[in-house]
Amino acid sequence: xxxxxxxxxxxxxxxxxxxxxxxxxxxxxxxxxxxxxxxxxxxxxxxxxxxxxxxxxxxxxxxxxxxxxxxxxxxxxxxxxxxxxxxxxxxxxxxxxxxxxxxxxxxxxxxxxxxxxxxxxxxxxxxxxxxxxxxxxxxxxxxxxxxxxxxxxxxxxxxxxxxxxxxxxxxxxxxxxxxxxxxxxxxxxxxxxxxxxxxxxxxxxxxxxxxxxxxxxxxxxxxxxxxxxxxxxxxxxxxxxxxxxxxxxxxxxxxxxxxxxxxxxxxxxxxxxxxxxxxxxxxxxxxxxxxxxxxxxxxxxxxxxxxxxxxxxxxxxxxxxxxxxxxxx
Amino acid sequence: xxxxxxxxxxxxxxxxxxxxxxxxxxxxxxxxxxxxxxxxxxxxxxxxxxxxxxxxxxxxxxxxxxxxxxxxxxxxxxxxxxxxxxxxxxxxxxxxxxxxxxxxxxxxxxxxxxxxxxxxxxxxxxxxxxxxxxxxxxxxxxxxxxxxxxxxxxxxxxxxxxxxxxxxxxxxxxxxxxxxxxxxxxxxxxxxxxxxxxxxxxxxxxxxxxxxxxxxxxxxxxxxxxxxxxxxxxxxxxxxxxxxxxxxxxxxxxxxxxxxxxxxxxxxxxxxxxxxxxxxxxxxxxxxxxxxxxxxxxxxxxxxxxxxxxxxxxxxxxxxxxxxxxxxx
Lengths: 329, 329
Fold this sequence. Notes:
- The structure is a homodimer of 329-residue chains.
- With 329 residues, chain A is of the alpha/beta class.
- Chain A has 13 helices and eleven strands.
- Chain A has two domains: 1-119 and 284-315, Isopropylmalate Dehydrogenase, CATH 3.40.718.10; 126-275, Isopropylmalate Dehydrogenase.
- In chain A, strands 3-2-1-4-11-10-5-6-9-7-8 form an eleven-stranded mixed sheet, with helices on both faces.
- The radius of gyration of chain A is 20 Å and the shape is globular.
- The mean pLDDT of chain A is 92.
- At the A-B interface, helix 7, helix 8, helix 9 and helix 10 of A face helix 7, helix 8, helix 9 and helix 10 of B.
């Protein structure tokens, strides 16, 4: 029976959507126990009697706020994030899920749970939608300054995750660059190209649009560029939505059209909705850590828990350790 | 009377859309002469008699192909790009427009026309649509590895362009980063933040989505990130379009909806269509250089010519020189 530690106080909307997500996950999957870490008096009223045997509450007083510094996380030993991570460190839980301060989760996971042998830096990965599926991109925020070897490790970790957790047989890797040719890239990415070139199923450089074309299964970049890319993608999708809405208001014919198209828009929303994917795994730490969006609704939390379970059920971390050893220069 | 030198052979579709764009521009603006550089026997049949006094043809045999190396451009002295740039260098033309090999245009412009005093590196700028207008982003491809001082110069050049050519009174500048806080950024961007901080109307760090929110008028980044950001934006817009189309095919009701919404889609296309903006100016060289998209249609070429004219009519380059001097450390 897996035990999933959930930071029940993190997230922009407080514990309600988080507990709702936990309940939805418990209903669908009978093979795990949820450990909710948070303020007991706030959490108890949210839990129906019939779930009481599958939910354990770990009481704590403190919550790391979105405005707090990630560096304070290590000192705030009574916070929900710290305590939930501690349960994983102490092997009282198998995985960690949080929609709270992502920097705090990253620091705590990296420093308290620790890195897999051979991993210089854990990376945050995210799935981005393509017409027919999704592309895994890493790093999207954990490491702003990366060297070529970091990028090579991300390639190995991302490929292992795509294989072991996403069930892709021979995941193709691409290195994010400003052109497809081998000669393209900045100093670090050109150096990384040479290192990643030895890995199986490396297709070479890919461009920003390739992420959404489904050219490859895994795209590697540093966390500075990954964050900018992600926010750009969100910005474009939002702006297109706003322009459509803005113009709709001006005409009854268009509104009728939009009503008739609502199924299409619903499918579109499904494709670009992060709630479908759950959260972003922090790959490279010794236990599954899923960092959900601060604005996660119950569905996003439910899917984040399923991600944590899928990772815990896989041999991902063992494979990462082996591959890093195998492809060490 | 301004003279605009146009690389008539560049572009993915040969000289036809380019000449059509030139004719459209000549019809609308009576105060310039077009110098078409290219193969005379291919160009002549495309030009109606009534335009013959406003078009000069400079014959040449060679065309730099999209597959050629940019570094060869300097040796190919009989190419349309080289000759058109030479006309500007020799002051026989006031500005240069090309939809050909952008790397070749950049190298030729930088090395043959030369940089404005104080400019370390020219930058390519592009306009990206927001709900209510557009944001100027630079660099989007000329310089893959930039130091903090390069980024500071881009800020000064972009702000001057927004003021002098785009007619924005007090253009706000933002530095592209992985978060708004001053503490966010990679090594280079944090260093650049300090340098740009002294410029008027600098709002600090901005994120990828801010480009499309219209938070600022000018966004500064290096050319590696700028290219990835641009391709990401194109990729997301394309993918959303494809998902809508894919799902439309499956239902008559949705198709009816789409027909009723066609005005909205048309407006959307207008907003995201690069042809509306013309081309990307190479800012920092001693004469206006407009690099149009390889897939430019006649409208894009027409607008690129108007951009060149607007720049030539402004005091942009003088202002850039003055501002660089004023804000030199």
